[in-house]
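Lab notebook page, bench 4
Experiment: in silico fold of construct C2
Operator: M.H.
Input chain length: 316 residues
Purpose: comparison with the prior construct
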Amino acid sequence: MAIPGAATAGGAITGPPPPRYWVRHRVALTGWGLLAPALIVLLIMSVVPTIYLVMFAFQHVDLLGPGTKFVGIQNFERVLGDPEMWSDAGATALYVALAVSIQLVFGMALALMLNRKMRETNLLTALFILPLGVAPVVSALIFRELLNPVYGWVDFYLQSWGLMGDPVDWLANPLTAWISIITLDVWQWTPFVALILLAGLQGVPQEPREAAVVDGAGPLSLFWHVTLPLMRPFIAIALVLRAIEAFKTFAGVYVLTGGGPGTSTTLLTLDMYRIALQDFDVGAASALGICFLFALSFVMSRLLAVLAKSTDILED
């Protein structure tokens, strides 16, 4: 047995083992060192812009005018007292509700189809996720050309099939413009919802389904009373993720309709863009962004609270 501090046969001098707290600190420092690059990127990309956003919200920052000056809560009073902002907030909520609801229905139907054990399932899955690889701006440009009343494919085939007479300018009417932007969002993001729900379907245990079949349950009853309750956690995940992204929709609506005709399809994200980069009032745009952030946080917290009552995904 070697004595600490004494020389061994090989000439090496043994010392006392390092203190336990030093080992713990060294492990902690190693962990923080590995996390440092990601934390620095997060700080630069998220925290610093948020600090600037809060600072500008209480200042008058006109990119074309004189210098910056502190104005207190005037920017918040301006955006919260504008009736058009409240109208656009209602339009944003309506857009999210319609788009996400349709995506959940179509996504469930698509997931049920892909969940069947067929040789074509892998190929179909690869084809259905192609819209996720297309940039929103590119998708909107393609849709705008497809809906063109002069040479667009949509009017051409609808007329060829006898479903309509004269061409329809889809983006010139508020109702058809709403149908267009929601269709664009549904086309692009339904595969994302379907993949989440497909993962849930593949994890559903077979025992409850087999027991229900033995008891005489039909396909519809089996889905409604067995499969759907077991899928609630995955539906909750898809609903929350898509609602957050839908509230942030900008590129597709901006390219497809520009908020028109008039202001019928104007969302809050378009308001922030116009105030900041067309009116050059960064202070008011920052205030609107903070209000939008708090409103989105409140809506998501309420939505999560409602979902937690029917699923165990948020429980400890």
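Observations: Residues 88-278+285-310 form a domain with the MetI-like fold fold (CATH 1.10.3720.10). The two ends are 50 Å apart (CA to CA).
Next step: discuss at group meeting.
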